[in-house]
């Protein structure tokens, strides 16, 4: 394995939300391989989070699991402090977890939008705010980074998953505003994957066919997304922008969300 382009400061800690499974797990393991100590957040995926921690530790890394309901703002406001209390510091937050439930204009409701707002928008902003506060308390030279997982569909809109898309669009705007508000202490960078893993609405066969519709012949894979997170977390000159990791998917217009297409 090639060494990472950017290595963290010795002892640096990264919190990854939703790190028990899927893309979050791959990001957590990649960060550990690059030298980060990793706080593995989970909501309901207790066993999967413990497995992520065990795999990191088996490879010689350091990790610990933290439970938090990202829809509960009060609980989210405690999470950064809990991580710092365990590890002694917190240097990075990767806002990976999000709610992804289907609705459209016909089925939209305020309740559905509010359900998405907590985990997809409020929690990432609260964690960014609390990271900045911790770093400022450490001294004027302390620096950190927030990486927000967004979605290529923000550059290629369709009307599916309306509430999810609205909260991700708001998060993309927050990406810019937080970069302005938290500089120079915290850099804020977005990473926008394309179709990466089958959703709960798509078969493996449909996923494989749809993946090939991107200009590069495939959209994104979890390791490519993790590599982009590593780059964003490590490059000290990037803030207030988003890296699209989607095989060019955002260049192709489709009337439906990729996760609903049959290839």
From TrEMBL:
Keywords: Oxidoreductase
Pfam annotation, one family: adh_short
SUPFAM superfamilies per the UniProt record, alphabetical: NAD(P)-binding Rossmann-fold domains
Entries under InterPro entries matching the protein: NAD(P)-bd_dom_sf, SDR_fam
Gene Ontology MF term list: oxidoreductase activity
Family, as annotated: Belongs to the short-chain dehydrogenases/reductases (SDR) family.
Protein name as catalogued: SDR family oxidoreductase
